[in-house]
From TrEMBL:
Organism this protein belongs to: Actinoplanes philippinensis
Entry protein name: Uncharacterized protein
Composition bias type Basic and acidic residues, residue spans: 764-775
Location of the region described as Disordered in the Swiss-Prot/TrEMBL record: 754-830
Length: 830
């Protein structure tokens, strides 16, 4: 036969080097590669320096992009090296596997979809194609798993190895000698006794038909394919038998392109059964000419140093010696991944598994992300996204990174809009993170990590539009039309704001108005208001026109106020908790709206509801707290209301629920209102012993939600108020204060006098204390504006008093002292 068949292991660096040596020694006229024939036109891009592996061929059905498959290539993949060798030398390259179009099209003789519908389509690429782990991407079965035996494992077991990976490394990867003939004989022996896979038989029939065609054109042919297929390609089979195997197969319309890939997706431990446990190690083996172990451990030391772990050159030297000693003891030709990993863990990581895991993630697997040229043929949506990424300086990266955005800056605002629009399209490139710095509405924090399967999502998103904004607009509009609940529509209103989808806003707002008119559930109405309030409040920051939304929001709030009294009757504990949460959300939303008429209407509704007899204790206590914070109730009235559920004879469970609702906003109220604290303390002491166990979980949940400093301060108050009492007033020492005035005057460029300093101090101390009725005026977090140290109220000097400054001094214990009945307060706060 004129062809030379090189049976390789997919993604094997030893096989890649052996193939290159054979091609240099025997240059062919044509090179046949195991892969989809529809991608032949994309082979020329392998010579482009912009196509940097790891990359993958993405194939998808034109009429249904959800039917998609990947054929990934790494720099150490034998197929990739063979393709680049041929393209750079002008040798014709042809993929000769069964066409992918035959996988996506239904058979001609049946109405039942082929195996592609169940996820077996990607078996076209054999082990080179791993099954995607994301549920939004087709999940083909691992072809190796569908075979009755693992040929590599069989050969490893015959050689006395329990790990096929280590056997292959010792025989092929580390020795560097061509073993194609021996591997072919071994595979033939294994296939003699193994049942045949029907899918493999069809694929190999097509391969043989392509070989027959090329034999009529060329005298020198090179074939690079998986070692499993070598016996089938060398076996003589009649043409009519191959034709019978391929009969009845139709070919669907498919499209192909190159997309970036990652080493993490090649690793089987990340959910892909590609047979490559350590792509980063294989990359090192292929790209490092000599001193493989030493260079690897030097890189490992660099990883540890980057994380602040002290690692010296002595560590590296000793680790190299240990790895080589382990290889000698185990009879291996060269220290492999197991030896260098064990050596690094023992010498560099001090036996700590977290450090070893760090090396495994950074080096063994690797965080490398490939790239494709900008002028690569792609769907219009992908081209638009690429242009925006370049304009906004947002480069896709496999390794997650943090991105802090200031929406007052044009570039950051455009970045935020792009990330939100991609989320609408099912491409969660960025995940929102809780803001760690500041509480302004202009700040967003994201965590970015690009995944290869996003390429499929983008192809699917192409059905909605040719640009990111048009596709997101079309999809949000469709979702608003198909939404079945009010909550779904209100969420879309916020999406329109965040993603700046101006054209989607009118239809979404119309759907909101229609759905709000049809929905009579007060819980649904309350759940819708917070998102609308955020949209109205933050629209100015994002420069978004939200005209018309205020009318809908006011209408929803009016319906909530009308329906709330009837919804608050005869509540179970679970229903009461749900109502409490809903009212909390509406109350915060009303504060965001900054509309006095809406605020008065809401406060009037909850004021009348809080005074209604028979209301469940949880919402009754919570409403009382909200009215107190809003200034609608004073201290004496709150204490009067608190006495009602805490009187002797009232059910303890009702009283505990009332206390839970009232105190769920924080415990500083008890610290600063001694009369209120005495009421709760006396009630706690008077609870009958047989009822205490029933209310203990409620009390523990209530007090356990307080900050440790709040619990400590409450305990000190009960113990006698030692830490809460203010110390002696220290008079201002004018002479001592005048000492640094000369230096300050020189720095400020003007003369300072003691009179000016004392006047400023007097102004600072002239502000009235916060609160008017024996309790502090609380803000959104229900904490007082000024603490026990008589500092000025927040806002007077353009800065707010923080919670840390408002807390009383810490005592010696972190829990309150025992109550009047010698029951420890630890039973309450846990």
């Amino acid at each position: 036969m004129p062809e030379r068949i090189y049976g390789i292991r997919h993604h094997g660096p030893g096989s890649a080097r052996a193939v290159l040596r054979e091609l240099d020694a025997h240059p062919p006229e044509v090179l046949l590669i195991e892969g989809p024939p529809e991608a032949d036109d994309l082979v020329r891009w392998a010579a482009d320096d912009g196509l940097e592996p790891p990359v993958a061929l993405l194939g998808y059905a034109v009429d249904d992009p959800g039917k998609a498959a990947f054929w990934p290539f790494a720099v150490f993949s034998p197929e990739w090296q063979a393709i680049r060798w041929a393209v750079r030398r002008g040798v014709r390259v042809r993929f000769f596997d069964l066409p992918y179009g035959c996988r996506v099209a239904p058979p001609a003789d049946t109405s039942t979809p082929p195996e592609v519908a169940t996820g077996n389509a990607v078996r076209t690429a054999d082990p080179i194609v791993p099954p995607p782990a994301d549920p939004g991407v087709p999940q083909p079965a691992d072809p190796v798993a569908s075979r009755p035996v693992d040929p590599i494992a069989e050969l490893a077991a015959a050689a006395g190895y329990d790990d096929p990976e280590r056997w292959w490394e010792d025989v092929v990867e580390h020795r560097g000698m061509p073993v194609f003939e021996a591997i072919a004989e071994a595979m033939a022996a294994i296939r003699e006794h193994a049942p045949e896979d029907p899918d493999d038989l069809a694929r190999e029939a097509y391969m043989r038909s392509v070989l027959r065609e090329e034999r009529r054109r060329h005298r020198d042919i090179a074939v690079v394919c998986g070692a499993w297929h070598v016996p089938a390609l060398t076996r003589k089979v009649a043409v009519k038998d191959d034709t019978a195997l391929l009969k009845g197969r139709r070919r669907g319309k498919v499209a192909f392109t190159w997309v970036p890939w990652t080493y993490g997706r090649l690793a089987s431990w990340s959910g892909y059964g590609a047979g490559v446990h350590s792509p980063g190690w294989y990359h090192h083996l292929f790209t490092t000419g000599d001193d493989v172990v030493t260079r690897w451990l030097v890189d490992a030391a660099g990883v540890l140093r980057a994380e602040g772990v002290p690692t010296s050159s002595a560590h590296v030297i000793e680790a190299v010696r240990l790895a080589e000693a382990l290889a000698t003891l185990r009879g291996r030709p060269l220290a492999g991944l197991a030896e260098v990993t064990e050596a690094a863990e023992a010498v560099m990581c001090d036996g700590e598994p977290l450090r070893s895991e760090l090396i495994a993630r950074r080096l063994v697997v690797g965080e490398r992300l490939g790239s494709v040229p900008d002028d690569m043929p792609a769907v219009p949506l992908v081209r638009d996204l690429t242009a925006q990424q370049r304009a906004l300086r947002l480069r896709p990266e496999a390794a997650g990174r943090a991105l802090d955005l200031d929406l007052r800056q044009d570039t950051d605002l455009r970045r935020s809009r792009l990330l939100h629009r991609l989320t609408v399209l099912g491409v969660p490139w960025g995940q929102r993170a809780a803001a760690r710095r500041g509480t302004g509405t202009f700040r967003e924090e994201w965590r970015l990590a690009w995944q290869p399967e996003f390429a499929v999502r983008l192809v699917e998103g192409g059905m909605w539009g040719t640009t990111v904004v048009s596709a997101a607009t079309a999809r949000v509009t469709r979702q608003a039309r198909d939404a079945s609940t009010l909550a779904e529509v209100t969420a879309l209103v916020e999406v329109c704001l965040l993603a700046d989808l101006a054209e989607a806003y009118p239809p979404v707002l119309a759907a909101l108005d229609t759905r709000a008119a049809l929905d009579a559930d007060v819980h649904h109405l309350m759940a819708a208001i917070p998102a609308l309030a955020r949209t109205l409040r933050y629209g100015d920051v994002r420069r978004t026109d939200v005209a018309g939304l205020a009318t809908v929001t006011a209408s929803l709030l009016g319906r909530v106020c009308a329906a709330l009294p009837s919804a608050a009757g005869s509540l179970s504990d679970e229903a009461a908790r749900q109502l409490r949460d809903g009212m909390d959300g509406v109350h915060q939303a009303v504060g965001l709206l900054a509309d006095d008429s809406l605020r008065e209407r809401w406060l009037g509704t909850i004021g009348s509801l809080a005074a209604r007899p028979g209301l469940h204790g949880l919402p009754a206590g919570r409403l009382t707290r909200l009215l107190l914070d809003a200034g609608r109730l004073d201290g004496p009235e709150v204490r009067r209301r608190l006495r009602l559920p805490l009187t002797v004879g009232a059910p303890p469970a009702h009283a505990a629920a009332w206390v839970e609702g009232f105190l769920s906003g924080g415990g500083l109220l008890l610290v600063h209102d001694e009369a209120l604290l005495s009421l709760v303390d006396d009630w706690l002491a008077d609870i009958p012993a047989d009822a205490f166990d029933a209310v203990l979980p409620l009390l523990r949940r209530t007090f356990g939600g307080f900050d440790p400093g709040e619990r400590r301060a409450i305990g000190e108050r009960i113990a006698g108020g030692r830490a809460a009492q203010a110390g002696p007033v220290v008079a201002l020492d004018i002479d001592r204060a005048a000492t640094p005035l000369a230096t300050l005057g020189a720095l400020l460029g003007r003369h300072l006098t003691t009179t000016e300093s004392s006047d400023s101090a007097a102004d600072d101390n002239s502000h009235p204390p916060a609160g008017e009725h024996g309790h502090p005026a609380s803000g959104e977090n229900n904490r007082p504006a000024a603490g026990a140290n008589d500092r000025p109220a927040a806002g007077e000097h353009d800065h707010s008093a923080t919670a840390e400054n408002n807390r009383p001094a810490a005592g010696e214990h972190d829990r309150p002292a025992t109550g009047a009945n010698n029951r420890p307060a630890a039973d309450v706060n846990g």
